[in-house]
Amino acid sequence: MKIPAPELIELTEKILAAAGAAPADAGLVAANLVESNLVGHDSHGVMRIPRYIKAIRAGGIDVTTRPTTVSDGTVTTVIDAGWGFGQVAATTAMDRTIEKALAHGVACASVFNCNDVGRLGAYTIVAVEHNCIGILTNNDGGSNPYVAPWGGAQAVLSTNPLSIAAPAGEHPPVCVDMSTSVTAGSQVQLAIQREEQLPEGCLIDAEGRPTTDPKVLFTDPKGALLPLGSPVAGHKGFALSLGIDILGGALSGAGCSGPAGRDAQGLFVQVIDISAFTTNDAYIAQVTGLIDRLKATPAAEGATGIRIPGEHSAATKAERLAGGIYIEEATWRGIIDVGAELGVA
Q: Do 151 and 233 belong together in one domain?
Protein backbone atom coordinates (compact mmCIF):
# COMPACT_ATOMS: atom_id res chain seq x y z
CA MET A 1 0.00 0.00 0.00
CA LYS A 2 1.06 3.62 -0.53
CA ILE A 3 0.74 6.29 2.14
CA PRO A 4 1.39 10.04 1.75
CA ALA A 5 4.47 11.18 3.67
CA PRO A 6 2.61 13.73 5.87
CA GLU A 7 0.14 11.05 7.03
CA LEU A 8 2.96 8.61 7.79
CA ILE A 9 4.85 11.26 9.78
CA GLU A 10 1.69 12.10 11.75
CA LEU A 11 0.99 8.44 12.56
CA THR A 12 4.60 7.77 13.58
CA GLU A 13 4.64 10.87 15.78
CA LYS A 14 1.42 9.81 17.52
CA ILE A 15 2.75 6.32 18.22
CA LEU A 16 6.02 7.62 19.66
CA ALA A 17 4.18 10.22 21.76
CA ALA A 18 1.81 7.55 23.06
CA ALA A 19 4.89 5.58 24.14
CA GLY A 20 6.00 8.54 26.25
CA ALA A 21 8.24 10.53 23.91
CA ALA A 22 8.30 14.31 24.32
CA PRO A 23 6.43 16.04 21.45
CA ALA A 24 9.59 17.60 19.98
CA ASP A 25 11.47 14.29 20.09
CA ALA A 26 8.55 12.36 18.63
CA GLY A 27 8.35 14.85 15.77
CA LEU A 28 12.09 14.73 15.09
CA VAL A 29 12.27 10.92 15.09
CA ALA A 30 9.10 10.58 13.00
CA ALA A 31 10.43 13.00 10.38
CA ASN A 32 13.78 11.16 10.34
CA LEU A 33 12.21 7.73 9.80
CA VAL A 34 9.83 8.88 7.06
CA GLU A 35 12.62 10.82 5.33
CA SER A 36 14.49 7.53 5.03
CA ASN A 37 11.46 6.00 3.31
CA LEU A 38 11.17 9.04 1.06
CA VAL A 39 14.72 8.72 -0.24
CA GLY A 40 14.38 4.97 -0.78
CA HIS A 41 16.15 3.66 2.34
CA ASP A 42 13.13 1.70 3.55
CA SER A 43 15.30 -0.47 5.79
CA HIS A 44 15.99 2.63 7.91
CA GLY A 45 12.43 3.95 7.83
CA VAL A 46 9.16 3.25 9.60
CA MET A 47 9.82 -0.49 9.76
CA ARG A 48 11.85 0.45 12.87
CA ILE A 49 8.80 1.74 14.78
CA PRO A 50 7.98 -1.60 16.52
CA ARG A 51 11.67 -2.01 17.38
CA TYR A 52 11.76 1.44 19.01
CA ILE A 53 8.56 0.83 20.99
CA LYS A 54 9.95 -2.48 22.22
CA ALA A 55 13.16 -0.71 23.30
CA ILE A 56 11.20 2.01 25.12
CA ARG A 57 9.19 -0.59 27.01
CA ALA A 58 12.34 -2.51 27.95
CA GLY A 59 14.14 0.62 29.10
CA GLY A 60 16.61 0.57 26.23
CA ILE A 61 15.42 3.98 25.02
CA ASP A 62 14.95 6.53 27.80
CA VAL A 63 12.32 8.96 26.51
CA THR A 64 12.93 11.36 29.42
CA THR A 65 16.65 12.00 28.89
CA ARG A 66 18.49 14.71 26.94
CA PRO A 67 21.98 14.62 25.42
CA THR A 68 24.57 16.16 27.72
CA THR A 69 27.92 17.70 26.82
CA VAL A 70 30.81 15.94 28.56
CA SER A 71 33.60 17.95 26.94
CA ASP A 72 33.25 21.24 25.07
CA GLY A 73 36.44 22.43 23.36
CA THR A 74 36.93 25.18 20.83
CA VAL A 75 36.50 22.82 17.87
CA THR A 76 35.57 19.57 19.64
CA THR A 77 32.54 18.22 21.50
CA VAL A 78 31.96 14.96 23.36
CA ILE A 79 28.31 14.13 23.96
CA ASP A 80 26.70 11.56 26.25
CA ALA A 81 23.43 10.63 24.52
CA GLY A 82 22.09 9.25 27.80
CA TRP A 83 20.41 6.29 26.05
CA GLY A 84 17.72 8.54 24.60
CA PHE A 85 16.65 8.60 20.98
CA GLY A 86 19.73 8.33 18.77
CA GLN A 87 18.25 10.78 16.29
CA VAL A 88 18.10 13.49 18.96
CA ALA A 89 21.73 12.93 19.95
CA ALA A 90 22.98 12.80 16.36
CA THR A 91 21.09 15.97 15.46
CA THR A 92 22.52 17.72 18.52
CA ALA A 93 26.05 16.63 17.62
CA MET A 94 25.75 17.71 13.99
CA ASP A 95 24.20 21.08 14.84
CA ARG A 96 26.91 21.81 17.44
CA THR A 97 29.67 20.77 15.04
CA ILE A 98 28.31 22.90 12.20
CA GLU A 99 28.20 25.90 14.53
CA LYS A 100 31.84 25.43 15.56
CA ALA A 101 33.01 24.72 12.00
CA LEU A 102 31.44 27.94 10.75
CA ALA A 103 33.34 29.80 13.47
CA HIS A 104 36.69 28.02 13.15
CA GLY A 105 36.81 26.25 9.77
CA VAL A 106 36.74 22.63 10.99
CA ALA A 107 35.11 20.93 13.97
CA CYS A 108 34.56 17.39 15.28
CA ALA A 109 32.35 15.64 17.79
CA SER A 110 31.92 12.18 19.25
CA VAL A 111 28.85 10.59 20.86
CA PHE A 112 28.50 7.62 23.21
CA ASN A 113 25.66 5.88 25.10
CA CYS A 114 23.74 6.33 21.89
CA ASN A 115 20.81 4.35 20.53
CA ASP A 116 20.06 3.77 16.85
CA VAL A 117 20.39 6.96 14.76
CA GLY A 118 18.93 5.60 11.53
CA ARG A 119 20.25 6.79 8.15
CA LEU A 120 23.54 8.68 8.43
CA GLY A 121 22.94 10.75 5.30
CA ALA A 122 20.08 12.53 7.05
CA TYR A 123 22.64 14.32 9.24
CA THR A 124 25.53 14.96 6.85
CA ILE A 125 23.16 16.57 4.33
CA VAL A 126 22.37 19.23 6.95
CA ALA A 127 25.97 20.43 6.74
CA VAL A 128 25.47 21.03 3.02
CA GLU A 129 22.72 23.52 3.83
CA HIS A 130 25.42 25.63 5.53
CA ASN A 131 27.86 25.32 2.62
CA CYS A 132 29.91 22.77 4.53
CA ILE A 133 31.05 19.20 3.97
CA GLY A 134 29.61 16.81 6.55
CA ILE A 135 31.16 13.49 7.62
CA LEU A 136 29.64 10.95 10.00
CA THR A 137 30.79 7.47 10.95
CA ASN A 138 29.04 5.03 13.24
CA ASN A 139 30.04 1.82 14.96
CA ASP A 140 27.65 -0.24 17.04
CA GLY A 141 29.85 -0.50 20.10
CA GLY A 142 29.96 -4.26 19.68
CA SER A 143 26.20 -4.63 20.03
CA ASN A 144 25.51 -6.02 16.57
CA PRO A 145 28.46 -8.07 15.32
CA TYR A 146 27.02 -8.99 11.93
CA VAL A 147 30.14 -8.87 9.75
CA ALA A 148 32.99 -11.35 9.38
CA PRO A 149 36.51 -9.93 9.02
CA TRP A 150 38.15 -10.57 5.66
CA GLY A 151 39.11 -14.23 5.60
CA GLY A 152 37.04 -15.05 8.69
CA ALA A 153 33.99 -17.27 9.10
CA GLN A 154 32.38 -15.64 12.15
CA ALA A 155 30.76 -12.26 12.72
CA VAL A 156 32.95 -9.93 14.80
CA LEU A 157 32.45 -6.46 13.34
CA SER A 158 29.35 -4.33 13.04
CA THR A 159 28.27 -2.95 9.66
CA ASN A 160 30.11 0.29 10.57
CA PRO A 161 28.55 2.74 8.09
CA LEU A 162 29.78 6.15 7.00
CA SER A 163 28.35 9.16 5.21
CA ILE A 164 29.99 12.10 3.44
CA ALA A 165 27.82 14.88 2.02
CA ALA A 166 29.07 17.84 -0.01
CA PRO A 167 27.52 20.73 -1.98
CA ALA A 168 27.47 20.23 -5.73
CA GLY A 169 26.13 23.45 -7.17
CA GLU A 170 23.37 22.89 -9.73
CA HIS A 171 23.51 19.15 -9.12
CA PRO A 172 21.91 17.40 -6.13
CA PRO A 173 24.35 17.31 -3.21
CA VAL A 174 26.82 14.46 -3.33
CA CYS A 175 25.80 12.16 -0.48
CA VAL A 176 27.82 9.01 0.14
CA ASP A 177 25.87 6.85 2.59
CA MET A 178 26.99 3.24 2.92
CA SER A 179 27.83 0.39 5.20
CA THR A 180 31.29 -1.15 5.09
CA SER A 181 29.69 -4.56 4.66
CA VAL A 182 28.27 -5.69 1.33
CA THR A 183 24.82 -4.81 2.64
CA ALA A 184 23.38 -3.43 5.87
CA GLY A 185 21.81 -5.57 8.58
CA SER A 186 18.52 -3.72 8.16
CA GLN A 187 18.51 -4.63 4.48
CA VAL A 188 18.71 -8.27 5.50
CA GLN A 189 15.73 -7.79 7.83
CA LEU A 190 13.83 -6.10 5.01
CA ALA A 191 14.57 -9.02 2.68
CA ILE A 192 13.17 -11.40 5.29
CA GLN A 193 9.98 -9.34 5.57
CA ARG A 194 9.65 -9.29 1.79
CA GLU A 195 10.46 -13.01 1.58
CA GLU A 196 13.34 -12.31 -0.78
CA GLN A 197 16.78 -13.84 -1.19
CA LEU A 198 19.93 -11.72 -1.11
CA PRO A 199 22.35 -11.53 -4.05
CA GLU A 200 25.28 -13.91 -4.04
CA GLY A 201 28.38 -12.61 -2.30
CA CYS A 202 26.59 -10.98 0.65
CA LEU A 203 26.38 -13.73 3.26
CA ILE A 204 27.98 -16.83 4.67
CA ASP A 205 26.24 -19.33 6.94
CA ALA A 206 27.47 -20.48 10.35
CA GLU A 207 29.87 -22.91 8.64
CA GLY A 208 31.40 -20.16 6.51
CA ARG A 209 29.69 -21.32 3.31
CA PRO A 210 28.25 -18.79 0.82
CA THR A 211 24.46 -18.47 0.95
CA THR A 212 21.67 -16.18 -0.29
CA ASP A 213 19.27 -16.96 2.60
CA PRO A 214 18.90 -13.79 4.74
CA LYS A 215 17.60 -15.79 7.70
CA VAL A 216 21.06 -17.21 8.45
CA LEU A 217 22.07 -13.86 9.95
CA PHE A 218 19.62 -14.40 12.83
CA THR A 219 19.83 -18.16 13.42
CA ASP A 220 21.73 -19.81 16.26
CA PRO A 221 24.54 -20.30 15.48
CA LYS A 222 24.30 -17.37 13.09
CA GLY A 223 25.95 -16.62 9.80
CA ALA A 224 27.66 -13.37 8.87
CA LEU A 225 27.66 -10.56 6.36
CA LEU A 226 30.78 -10.16 4.24
CA PRO A 227 32.93 -7.00 4.08
CA LEU A 228 32.35 -4.51 1.27
CA GLY A 229 34.14 -5.62 -1.89
CA SER A 230 33.67 -9.35 -1.26
CA PRO A 231 34.29 -11.87 -2.63
CA VAL A 232 37.25 -10.40 -4.55
CA ALA A 233 38.29 -7.26 -2.67
CA GLY A 234 36.74 -7.65 0.77
CA HIS A 235 40.03 -6.67 2.37
CA LYS A 236 39.25 -3.06 1.40
CA GLY A 237 35.85 -3.03 3.10
CA PHE A 238 37.37 -4.76 6.13
CA ALA A 239 40.12 -2.11 6.39
CA LEU A 240 37.57 0.70 6.08
CA SER A 241 35.37 -0.90 8.74
CA LEU A 242 38.32 -1.20 11.11
CA GLY A 243 39.09 2.50 10.74
CA ILE A 244 35.46 3.45 11.43
CA ASP A 245 35.37 1.18 14.47
CA ILE A 246 38.32 3.09 15.90
CA LEU A 247 36.82 6.52 15.12
CA GLY A 248 33.33 5.68 16.36
CA GLY A 249 34.11 3.21 19.13
CA ALA A 250 37.54 3.89 20.62
CA LEU A 251 37.60 7.69 20.28
CA SER A 252 34.12 8.19 21.75
CA GLY A 253 34.48 5.61 24.48
CA ALA A 254 31.41 3.77 23.19
CA GLY A 255 33.53 0.66 22.68
CA CYS A 256 34.82 -1.20 19.62
CA SER A 257 33.18 -4.24 18.06
CA GLY A 258 33.23 -7.28 20.27
CA PRO A 259 30.78 -9.52 22.12
CA ALA A 260 27.10 -8.74 21.62
CA GLY A 261 25.75 -6.37 24.22
CA ARG A 262 23.50 -3.37 24.56
CA ASP A 263 22.41 -1.76 21.28
CA ALA A 264 24.95 1.06 21.51
CA GLN A 265 26.31 3.25 18.74
CA GLY A 266 29.49 5.34 18.76
CA LEU A 267 29.48 8.37 16.47
CA PHE A 268 32.26 10.48 15.01
CA VAL A 269 31.17 13.74 13.36
CA GLN A 270 33.28 16.13 11.32
CA VAL A 271 32.22 19.30 9.52
CA ILE A 272 34.40 21.34 7.16
CA ASP A 273 33.55 24.92 6.22
CA ILE A 274 34.40 25.20 2.53
CA SER A 275 35.00 28.95 2.75
CA ALA A 276 37.85 28.34 5.22
CA PHE A 277 39.81 26.62 2.44
CA THR A 278 38.74 28.10 -0.89
CA THR A 279 36.17 30.37 -2.45
CA ASN A 280 32.70 28.98 -3.02
CA ASP A 281 32.92 29.68 -6.77
CA ALA A 282 36.21 27.82 -7.09
CA TYR A 283 34.90 24.87 -5.10
CA ILE A 284 31.66 24.61 -7.08
CA ALA A 285 33.53 24.86 -10.37
CA GLN A 286 35.73 21.92 -9.39
CA VAL A 287 32.90 19.71 -8.13
CA THR A 288 30.45 20.43 -10.95
CA GLY A 289 33.22 20.00 -13.49
CA LEU A 290 34.05 16.59 -12.05
CA ILE A 291 30.41 15.53 -12.03
CA ASP A 292 29.93 16.72 -15.61
CA ARG A 293 32.98 14.71 -16.73
CA LEU A 294 31.70 11.64 -14.92
CA LYS A 295 28.25 12.03 -16.47
CA ALA A 296 29.80 12.34 -19.93
CA THR A 297 31.53 8.97 -19.60
CA PRO A 298 30.19 6.46 -22.16
CA ALA A 299 27.99 3.85 -20.51
CA ALA A 300 29.35 0.32 -20.16
CA GLU A 301 27.50 -2.56 -21.77
CA GLY A 302 24.24 -3.20 -19.92
CA ALA A 303 24.44 0.07 -17.97
CA THR A 304 22.21 3.11 -18.45
CA GLY A 305 24.71 5.76 -17.39
CA ILE A 306 26.62 7.19 -14.45
CA ARG A 307 24.73 7.85 -11.22
CA ILE A 308 26.33 10.15 -8.65
CA PRO A 309 25.84 9.24 -4.95
CA GLY A 310 22.77 11.10 -3.72
CA GLU A 311 21.22 11.49 -7.17
CA HIS A 312 18.97 8.43 -6.94
CA SER A 313 17.80 9.43 -3.45
CA ALA A 314 16.82 12.90 -4.67
CA ALA A 315 14.83 11.44 -7.57
CA THR A 316 13.16 8.84 -5.34
CA LYS A 317 12.17 11.52 -2.85
CA ALA A 318 10.50 13.61 -5.55
CA GLU A 319 8.64 10.54 -6.81
CA ARG A 320 7.46 9.43 -3.37
CA LEU A 321 6.44 12.92 -2.30
CA ALA A 322 4.17 12.99 -5.32
CA GLY A 323 2.90 9.41 -5.28
CA GLY A 324 3.17 8.26 -1.70
CA ILE A 325 5.44 5.80 0.10
CA TYR A 326 5.00 2.08 -0.50
CA ILE A 327 4.84 0.09 2.75
CA GLU A 328 4.90 -3.70 2.51
CA GLU A 329 2.17 -5.60 4.33
CA ALA A 330 4.43 -7.07 7.04
CA THR A 331 5.79 -3.64 7.97
CA TRP A 332 2.33 -2.05 7.95
CA ARG A 333 0.89 -4.81 10.12
CA GLY A 334 3.68 -4.33 12.67
CA ILE A 335 3.00 -0.58 12.81
CA ILE A 336 -0.76 -1.04 13.12
CA ASP A 337 -0.39 -3.66 15.86
CA VAL A 338 1.93 -1.56 18.00
CA GLY A 339 -0.25 1.49 17.42
CA ALA A 340 -3.31 -0.40 18.58
CA GLU A 341 -1.51 -1.53 21.73
CA LEU A 342 -0.82 2.14 22.50
CA GLY A 343 -4.34 3.31 21.68
CA VAL A 344 -3.41 5.02 18.41
CA ALA A 345 -5.95 4.47 15.64
A: yes
Taking the model in full, what pTM does it have? 0.93
Do 161 and 31 belong to one domain?
A: no
> At 105, which CATH number?
3.30.1370.60
Query: Each residue's pLDDT tens digit in the chain (345 positions)?
Result: 899 999 999 999 999 999 999 999 999 999 999 999 999 999 899 999 999 999 999 999 999 999 999 999 999 999 999 999 999 999 999 999 999 999 999 999 999 999 999 999 999 999 999 999 999 999 976 667 899 999 999 999 999 999 999 999 999 999 999 999 998 887 888 888 888 999 999 999 999 999 999 999 988 889 999 999 999 999 999 999 999 999 999 999 888 887 655 668 999 999 999 999 999 999 999 999 999 999 999 999 999 889 999 999 999 999 999 999 999 998 999 999 999 999 998
Name the 3-class secondary structure at 71: strand
Number of domains into which the chain is organized: 2
Instruction: Report yes or no on 285 lying in a domain.
Output: no
**Dist CA 238 CA 234 (whole Å):** 6
Contact 38, 5 (CB under 8 A): yes
16 closest CA partner among 38, 39, 65, 49: 49
- In degrees rounded to 5, what are phi and psi of residue 161? -80, 165
Q: Could you tell me the residue range of the domain that residue 90 belongs to?
A: 73-182+226-280
Question: Is residue 287 in some structural domain?
Answer: no
